[in-house]
Design goal:
D-Maltodextrin-Binding Protein, domain 2, two-stranded antiparallel sheet, 22% strand, 7-stranded mixed β-sheet, 11 strands, alpha/beta, 42% helix, Arc Repressor Mutant, subunit A, 3 domains, single chain
């Protein structure tokens, strides 16, 4: 472990940037500082350590064997410094009136964009920063204060995260070749056995929910196609690749004409929740939008 008595945080930052970029000029640009400043800090670090970190060979900086060892130790520290800087910057953000959102992809196809547009029609000055992400990374994004509110489908409880239920939806079967046109109502899970089945790669909370229902009924589908997302699965079904089980949000958003939807009996229901960091109250603009979402969302 390298302590601040031997390498200060600023020295670690410069050292890692030079090591990664391969040059002092590149490191200076990355850190937005003057090149002489970067050179001076690096030289001071070498003086404190008592050995060279880089040698100049034919105009290029080559890391010494000692530098390679130090880099392994300082890389984690450097990432923590970068994260700390990002978090510090993000802590300034809520007062600027921008509504910072992150959601899973299923809600980004149509549902949230429509709600954002409707909200802006009533509040023309409202500003949004919106991204989509996987659930696990969404939690990191919230903890780093990069976004204020996250929207997820059936998320598990996470320590330090406050949940607000904004609606309920369900898993449905989608098909495109008339496989279940003769079924007057809802399907049973075992009705899908024997059909070409498009499965979805482990996709978090909804995947676990479906696996629980299939396991409870001792059902296992044979799949020749595994899609990475529900949206890709829907596209494959639309092209005639078989049937799939997806969330209703994805199934109904901008639905291709040849896609048909049927729910299950009993329904495979899940909650849609808004998430935010418990220790940090939402800004007024985010609170207003969250209230609007709860009153206007249609799932």
């Amino acid at each position: 472990m390298i302590y601040n008595g031997y390498m200060r945080l600023r020295q670690i930052e410069i050292f890692n940037a030079v090591y990664s970029c391969g040059s002092i000029s590149g490191a200076a640009r990355q850190l937005n500082i003057a090149q002489p400043t970067a050179s001076k800090i690096l030289k001071h670090a070498e003086d404190q350590l008592g050995f060279l970190l880089f040698r100049r060979v034919r105009g290029r900086l080559i890391a010494t064997s000692e530098a390679k060892i130090l880099f392994k130790e300082t890389e984690i520290i450097y990432k923590q410094i970068t994260k700390l800087k990002s978090t510090s910057e993000n802590l300034k953000n809520p007062s600027d009136g921008k509504i910072r959102l992150v959601s899973v992809a299923a809600l980004s196809i149509e549902i949230l964009p429509k709600l954002i547009q409707k909200y802006r029609s009533e509040n023309p000055k409202a500003q949004f920063i919106y991204q989509t992400d996987h659930f696990n990374h969404m939690i990191s994004t919230l903890h780093e204060y990069d976004k204020e509110i996250g929207f997820a489908l059936n998320p598990p409880k996470v320590e330090g995260i406050t949940e607000t239920i904004i609606g309920e939806s369900e898993m449905v079967c989608i098909y495109g070749n008339g496989e279940f046109d003769h079924h007057p109502g809802r399907l049973k899970l075992n009705d899908l056995s024997g059909f070409d089945y498009v499965s979805i790669e482990d996709s978090g909370p909804l995947s676990e929910l479906l696996d629980q229902h299939l396991s409870h009924e001792s059902i296992s589908y044979q799949s020749k196609i595994i899609a990475q997302t529900y949206f890709v699965a829907r596209s494959l079904v639309a092209l005639g690749s078989g049937v799939a089980i997806v969330d209703k949000c994805t199934a109904a958003s901008q639905k291709p004409e040849n896609i048909q939807i049927k729910g299950f009996n009993p329904p495979i229901k899940f909650t849609v929740k808004a998430l935010h960091v418990a220790e940090r109250p939402l800004s007024k603009s985010s609170l207003d939008f969250l209230s609007f979402i709860k009153n206007n969302i249609e799932l």
